[in-house]
Amino acid sequence: MSRQLAKYWINADEYERMGEAGIFAPEARLELIEGEIYEMSPIGSPHAACVDFLIFFLGQLSQRRFIVRAQNPIRLSDFSEPQPDVALLRWRDDFYRGAHPRPADVLLLIEVADTTIGADKAVKVPLYATSGIPETWIVNLPDEQIEVYADPAGGAYKIAKTYRRGETAQAHTLSNLSVAVAEVLG
Fold this sequence. Notes:
Layout: H1 12-20, E1 30-33, E2 36-39, H2 45-62, E3 66-70, E4 86-90, E5 106-113, H3 117-130, E6 135-140, E7 145-153, E8 156-164, E9 168-170, E10 178-180, H4 181-185
């Protein structure tokens, strides 16, 4: 008689306790996606510069209306705690000191993708839609474009729009958020 192997799913609480216990190397860049721990790709100069620009630009725009967060965890569910490159969160005076933000706290997530474009589109965008994140952007460095996904329903985004150099990307959830694609890409 053959027996099928059972997979053990790590939940977000266990994942955080593992980190606190020092199980992961201090320099490890990891995230929890659907109960599995994934190593994140190294950050190259174009990726880092793009994230830095977005933090600067969005920080100036925020004026205490939302919090701009860089490469920090978002607790999407009991089994997913990704670290998007940029998150715009509902304003809270405590800056989420007591717990990581949840989907209801998120206004917009941005992933900057160079080598991870395939995984970001195939895994993260559907994960964010399923979690009810109202809007997700992918800054697609290889194709020099910003992909805007909004209005989640049934595990997918109903709106998908691509903006290229020479165009201005417009948010759907934050009416005053627009940025020239060329500025973001550098």
